[in-house]
Write a structure and sequence with these properties.
The complex is a heterodimer of chains A (about 120) and B (about 120). Chain A has about 120 residues and is mainly β. Chain A has strands at about 5, 10-15, 20-25, 30-35, 45-50, 55, 65-70, 75-80, 90-95, 105, 110-115. Chain B is about 0% helix and about 50% strand. The interface of A and B includes residues 45 and 104 of A.
Chain lengths: ~120, ~120
């Protein structure tokens, strides 16, 4: 049962450290999305990637955040020099190449806590 | 711009009561999709339903039903005979229908916390 796999599930970092969150999409899915859920809020779109390409990063903060989806391996969301405001749940979702119906398959999320 | 409003922040009911979760959306698109997701205490997001803007038929799935009304831009969700296991945060979401780069980009509401007491 290879759904969207995210790790780590929980990550604790001190201010100024780097956080790396990984996402393996459903097998055969070539589209990956990252969403952020701040405490007691809904999910906010961050970035949409296809293999080796960033398609839409309109929701990404301009600094410190980056994402990639290499030809081999998982998608990575990287947050440099974390601050307390980065504490949130980060969800990855994937969809198949022809999935124009918009159904996304979500992972269980990675919860980042910045001390 | 797209917007989804879930005005009910929290709802508390007793088991077996019916409960309706409201969702109002704003979009200038003529083609769009609406979704409901459930987020149980464990944190994952569970897909419940997708509805496209050309299909206003109401849908029923077991104890769940959805009422889509374009005239009022609403997509409400009703749970009949609620159970404790229904306790979760429920999110309504909207997506443009244009395809291409838009199709995974959902606009979520703030969510409604539903607590069902035994």
């Amino acid at each position: 049962n290879a759904g969207v796999m995210q790790n780590p599930r929980h990550l604790v970092r001190r201010r100024g450290q780097e956080a790396r969150l990984r996402c393996s999409p459903v097998k055969g899915h070539s589209h990956v999305y990252w969403y952020r859920q701040l405490p007691e809020e809904g999910l906010k779109f961050m970035v949409y990637l296809q293999k080796e390409n960033i398609i839409d990063e309109s929701g990404m903060p301009k600094e410190r955040f980056s994402a990639e989806f290499p030809k081999e391996g998982p998608s990575i969301l990287r947050i440099q020099q974390v601050v307390r405001g980065d504490s949130a749940a980060y969800f990855c979702a994937s969809s198949p190449p022809n999935g124009n119906t918009g159904e996304l398959f979500f992972g269980e999320g990675s919860r980042l806590t910045v001390l | 711009a797209q917007k989804v409003t879930q005005a009910q922040t929290e709802i508390s009911v007793v088991e077996k009561e019916d409960v309706t979760l409201d969702c109002v959306y704003e979009t200038r698109d003529t083609t769009y999709y609406l979704f409901w997701y459930k987020q149980p205490p464990s944190g994952e997001l569970v897909f419940l339903i997708r509805r496209n803007s050309f299909d206003e038929q109401n849908e029923i799935s077991g104890r769940y039903s959805w009422n889509f009304q374009k005239s009022t831009s609403s997509f409400n969700f009703t749970i009949t005979a609620s159970q404790v296991v229904d306790s979760a945060v429920y999110f309504c979401a909207l997506r443009r229908g244009a395809g291409g780069t838009s199709y995974g980009k959902l606009t979520f509401g703030q969510g409604t916390i539903l607590t069902v007491h035994p």
